[in-house]
Amino acid sequence: MAASFQEQVWTLVRRIPAGRVATYGQLGAMLGGPRLARQVGWAMAACEQAAEPVPWHRVINAAGEISDRGDPARAEHQRHLLEHEGVRFDHRGRVDLSRFQWPFPDLE
DNA sequence: AACATGACGTTGC
DNA sequence: CGCAACGCCATGT
Hints:
The chain is mostly helical. The chain has helices at residues 5-14, 24-30, 37-45, 72-84, 97-100, and strands at residues 22-23, 59-60.
């Protein structure tokens, strides 16, 4: 109830297992529409407002790249966390989604 | 209630 | 394969 869109996003992101990543479009599609990708990203920007921690670092864009959102230091930190979980990056700093993307969960 | 913004995605060239 | 433009919907002022 009164669960804002961003709250649903946070809950979904918390279900992403370590060593796996999910794209904004993927999460958006799970929440009701593939067009919600932008809103998912917006929800991530406000993830610090969440009462509980959110593994925001496991959320990347469809290109397998990290959205620095104008803060390269943040992207670097995100990449470090992912590598620590076993996610590999190519020479361009992109993730092989066909291998590390979070499998579609059994959402009813 | 309306306008402007935005951690994106897809299509076209 | 790389770059640019448009569309999309929730949130804040």
